[in-house]
Amino acid sequence: MTDLCAMPAAQPISDLSDDALDWQVLLHSGNASTADQARYRRWCALSPAHAEAAREAEALWLDIGHTPTAQATAAVPARRKRHWAAGVAASLVLLAAAVAGWQQAPVLLADYHTGLGERQVITLADGTRVTLNSASALSVAFSERERRVVLDAGEALFETTDEPRPFVVDTAGGSVQGSAATFSVRRDGRVVLARGEAKVGEQQLTVAPDAGAQTAWQRGKLIFNGKPLGQVLAELERYRHGRIVLSDSKLAAMEVSGVFDLDEPEALLRTLEQRYGLKVTYLPWLAVVY
Question: How many helices (H) and strands (E) does the chain have?
Answer without folding.
Answer: 8, 15
